[in-house]
Amino acid sequence: MKSKRHAIIRDIIETQVVETQEELAEALRSRDIQVTQATVSRDIKEMMLFKVPTESGRYRYAAPQQENLTFTKNRLARLLKDNVTGLDSSENLIVVKTLPGSASLVAAGLDQSQWPEVIGTIAGDDNILVVIKPKAAVLRVVKRLSQYF
Question: Which of 14, 82, 88, 101 has its CA 20 to 30 A from that of 69?
């Protein structure tokens, strides 16, 4: 059942603009798939869906394979400038604050930037945990990130 629902979700987000979990739940119900908001939320996490900007300036759900996520230096700079609102660090960790709904996209950009100090990222809705190695590189990465916002 879950794999069928995931296939239908993928079809929905590829064929129509879906901005919210409730819109996605309604689209599933219109296809005779009864779901709760909690189920839709879990599906979004399991499928690693994230929000991307539309031409109108709003945001819609997208799947990682659906989007061309090649982050050039200029695209990463624009992404950080447009979405990052602040940051803080402790030991070998940096917390990057973003606009609501944009943490996944910013984290993907950081992951694909291949900065040698960045081991990886974990994104929530509006916060990203960036793991840095070595610890001595944290200030350098904070400075690099700070120049964009």
Answer: 88
